[in-house]
Amino acid sequence: QVQLVESGGGLVQPGGSLRLSCAASGRIFFTSASRWYRQAPGNQRELVASIVTGGTTNYADSVKGRFTISRDSAKNTVYLQMDTLKPEDTAVYFCNAAIIMRLGGALTEYWGQGTQVAVSS
After folding, report:
1. 49-76, pLDDT tens digit by residue?
2. pLDDT tens, 11-23?
């Protein structure tokens, strides 16, 4: 089975930076897309950024220009570089990936357990 594990969360001051990592383990034949979501208490889960085959990226308007998603295929790891952090960025951040485990297999979405990001002075 595929497992996703996030790391890099923590407490930072407004204007600071943080880099989140999502490492995938298990049998992975092909990753169609990798995404970062976030959810703050009382809020709906929000799609923050995505990267698809070929490297095309998309961002939520709220983070555009401040966040950067990237992927290291050799390490089966996706990153979210967060700069100029704001208090409203405070949330649990979740990694999501659409993966097929073998040739001819089904495309299945996997989720990490989440990592807490707190932006406060």
Report:
1. 999 988 999 999 999 999 999 999 889 9
2. 999 999 999 999 9
Given a contact cutoff of 8 angstroms between Cβ atoms, the answer to whether 110 and 4 are in contact is yes
Cα 44 to the center of its chain, rounded Å: 16
CB 117 within 8 A of CB 50: no
Alpha carbon separation from 43 to 46, 53, 112 (Å, rounded): 8, 30, 19
**Residue from 117, 53, 108 nearest 80 by CA:** 117
Please state, in angstroms and rounded to a whole number, the distance separating the CA atoms of residues 101 and 109: 11
Work out whether strand 10-12 and strand 115-119 pair parallel, antiparallel, or are unpaired. parallel
Strand blocks (E) in the chain? 3-7, 10-12, 18-25, 30-39, 46-52, 57-59, 67-72, 77-82, 91-100, 108-111, 115-119
